[in-house]
Amino acid sequence: MDSLCCFSSVSQVVGGRSSSNSGKGKSSQSPVKYGFSLVKGKANHPMEDFHVAKFVEFKGQELGLFAIYDGHLGDTVPAYLQKHLFPNILKEEDFWNDPFMSICKAYLSTDEAILSHSPDLGRGGSTAVTAFS
């Protein structure tokens, strides 16, 4: 994956533009388009939010992967989610047949992995919102 800096997108921009804090893109196979913008608040701490916005080829299908990871008490957990959550979801065997259960299992296994790495990741945490197209 690309760099895990908070303002560095993990985006594959197809037919769009991207800068360090915003971007847009579109599907090569459907009319789906996306855009994103990251804005740091007024708090006196660094940006802790990460995102994913990209289209990938998965088992012969184009799949849009979109996520926002809102970090709390640091950026290590949202960075971990940016790198690992979608791969964990997509490696679930029943992803196409039962996406709901596959996503639930992947969220749980990713949460367990974060907890098992807590000495390395610190005390922080993150929310995670994911969407597929």
UniProtKB/TrEMBL annotation:
Any GO MF annotation of the entry: protein serine/threonine phosphatase activity
Name listed for the protein in its UniProt record: PPM-type phosphatase domain-containing protein
Highest classification ranks of the organism: Eukaryota, Viridiplantae, Streptophyta, Embryophyta, Tracheophyta
Skewed-composition ranges (Low complexity): 13-30
Pfam families listed in its UniProt record: PP2C
Organism superkingdom: Eukaryota
SUPFAM superfamilies per record: PP2C-like (SSF81606)
Segments for region (Disordered): 13-32
InterPro entries: PP2C, PPM-type-like_dom_sf, PPM-type_phosphatase-like_dom
